[in-house]
Amino acid sequence: MRLKVFFAGDGDCLLLTTGDGRHVLVDGGRTAAFRENARPHLSELAAADEPIDLLVVSHIDADHISGVISLLKEVAAWEVHDYQVGEGQNPTFPEPATPRPPTIRGLWHNSWRAQLGDLEGPISALAAQASEALSLATSEVEELTGAGQLALESVAGLAESITDGVTLLRLVDDETPVVRNAAFDSGLVLLRSPVHEEQVGSATLRVIGPGEHHLKKLREEWRAWIERQPAAVRNAAARGGGGRRGSGTGSETGHEVAGSTLPMSPPQAHDLVRDVARAAEAIASSAHADEAADPRALPAIIEKTRPTNVTTPNRASITLLVEEDGRTLLLTGDAAEEEILEGLTASGHLTDGDPFWCDVVKVQHHGSEHNLSRGFASRVLADQYVFCADGAHGNPNPSVVRTLLETRIEADPERPFTVWFNCSEERTIPQRRKAMRAALKEARRLESRHTEQVTVRVLADDEPFLEIEV
């Protein structure tokens, strides 16, 4: 197997090619990065008449789904062209401006509505409200720090992701011949008993996450989260007020939900920003009352994570274990570590005793400190670790780098391994260079101390992808 890891901005875009030449595309990263780095290679596949056997959208976050939307828009445009030239008997119908994409034989994706059911409308409405408030209350937003700032950024980002998810479903179900979740009767790609296996050429894909009970738990957490919001926010969410300028949706086909379409006034925006931020800060203060973080101690070994700090779309990531000829590749999306460990246990690859040795691990959630601790790093050991991140949101976190590498060194002080980064300090935007520099510094510090065991590889700034032999 070969894994191409494209530069994808702050997201993921991975192309797996099996030993017998079949292709699986996992996520698409950001649109601009996808068009510059992944699309030329996919055009080569199309020219060689090599299809994408399976397209997997791990979850709806914009940093994973935006490039896929760009690809599917091209598929839709060429579908119209071929129809016009063929059945439409219009031979002069112009070709689309972009090269023909490869044929996509199938898609795996869990829609927002399928995950959340009756909570989809209220959450979409609340996310749309927060996004609008952020755009109007700029002075208040600039003054926010800590939990309040993170809460509003997270909800506003969710508004973008929900819109992208609706767009993707419309393209797939209404405008392209791509078949969605054909192998899953429930409509959701889930961890099952027995674990679902999909053969793609000579490789076997096992779905090891998300689990249905985790989705149920997440729905309960979302419902409780809505109840903690200020009354004005709850009331708007209860009305499904996501129709505000078309930001929210009440169905998977993109119809607006019921609610006021009047724009928010600046005073209303200021109040919403203040109230949501205060609610988040109160929760964070209670959760961390017994902690005294020392910034001078970083990067530090992460002993334990807080799964509740991992956002709902991330924890619902489709997680795959790929096997071919005894070689293994773990594709984690942005999943929390407990979900990944549970899936590996369900698939029989992880027991209470020995750790699971994997050939390649795509490190979950771009190396976020909320998704990986020593517990995961000691139970899932690899010969190659892959970080997909460009410094956004402080990822890859230097503490994750240290936790992962030092735990691996302790597990086997002689067996060599490689750590891959798909972005350099210079390639990312200026605001993210400090974070990227810190992660790479920590990786190189450990490489210099263990020169015979640790190898660090960083994607060259003029190259579109890393290519890793699995």
Topology of this protein?
Layout: E1 2-6, E2 14-17, E3 23-26, H1 31-47, E4 54-56, H2 62-85, E5 107-108, H3 112-116, H4 120-136, H5 138-143, H6 146-175, E6 197-200, E7 203-209, H7 212-228, H8 231-238, H9 266-287, H10 312-315, E8 319-324, E9 327-331, H11 337-346, E10 356-362, H12 374-379, E11 380-387, H13 398-411, E12 417-421, H14 433-449, E13 454-458, E14 465-469
Parallel strand pairs: 3-4, 4-5, 9-10, 10-11, 11-12, 12-13
Antiparallel strand pairs: 1-2, 1-14, 2-3, 6-7, 7-8, 8-9
Task: Tell me about this structure.
The chain is α/β, with parallel strands linked by helices and 470 residues long. The protein has a domain at 295-469. The chain has 14 helices and 14 strands. It has helices at 31-47, 62-85, 112-116, 120-136, 138-143, 146-175, 212-228, 231-238, 266-287, 312-315, 337-346, 374-379, 398-411, 433-449, and strands at 2-6, 14-17, 23-26, 54-56, 107-108, 197-200, 203-209, 319-324, 327-331, 356-362, 380-387, 417-421, 454-458, 465-469. A hairpin with a 2-residue loop joins strand 8 (319-324) and strand 9. Helix 6 crosses helix 9 (266-287). The longest helix is centred in the middle third of the chain and has 30 residues, at 146-175. It is globular. The termini are close together.
